[in-house]
Amino acid sequence: MKPVKYNGLLKASLLASAFLIAPRIMDGQRNTLVDGSPTPPGLYVTPTAPLTNAIQQQLNPGLTNYPDYVAGEAVKAVVSPDGKILAILTAGFNSLFKPYVVGSPATVDRAASTQFIFLYDVSGPNKSKPVLNQVIQQLNSHVGLVWAPNSKTLYATGGCDDAVYAYSSTGASFVQSARISLGHAPDGCLANSANRTGLGRGVEPNAAGLAISANGKTLVVANNYNDSISVIDTASATVRYEYNLRPYSTLGAPAGTKGGTFPYSVALKGTTAYMWVATVTVRSS
Fold this sequence. Notes:
This protein is mostly beta strands. The chain has a single domain, classed as Methylamine Dehydrogenase, Chain H, CATH 2.130.10. Helix content is 0%, strand content 35%. A 4-stranded mixed β-sheet has the order 18-19-1-20, with no helix packed on it. The protein has a 4-stranded antiparallel β-sheet with strand order 6-7-8-9, with no helix packed on it. Strands 10-11-12-13 form a 4-stranded antiparallel β-sheet, with no helix packed on it. Strand 15 and strand 16 form a beta hairpin. The radius of gyration is 21 Å and the shape is globular. The chain starts with a strand and ends with a strand.
């Protein structure tokens, strides 16, 4: 991670999911601790063997036609600033096929083949045993997921959709309140050459990491395949400007200064934005 000077932005935090790590592993059948081959630091990763005061819940989105389906590729988990809601984002292969008909080709169920945002109630007594309240289907996604400071809006990046999605609280649930286009491929992941607008041959854009200012007025998105960041005004749900991270480009960082390519994640602290790969100085609105 390298620093990016960002005038006008305030504090934001970066949260990450983690495996359950213990000095010894639990034998699931005997419910006893057993020794085995440790990882290099001498610890054990035990995602399927919760220890004391830990539980494991499957990410079942409750699809009508696939009641037993469990979503895969959970990539991000963030708790709302008020500590009441845990949001989990999936980003990967969640393709489902319609029931097979003899003599017919296999058909993808596109309505069900999406990514998912799981919203759990973790307030009060639910802190030790989260309760699933809502599942949001999002067509595509990547690794960006942040809460507004007031816990009323959740933002998620759309990967090759080249967009950031905003979901706002209605009191009873969260509904999509905005789709913020980043301007590289307005039609998103459609299979045609017009959308291959990432840098490189036949590459689609990829909205990746996401961070928000402490006052909730500004979002910063890492454009993974466009070597840039997009700065978004949350009030108008529009892009203020895009900053090219390549120092050899006339559109971005001054020649000879620090920069980089393929930005993946971004975090904000005070007036500094930290990104994996790049280092630049940018202006505020």
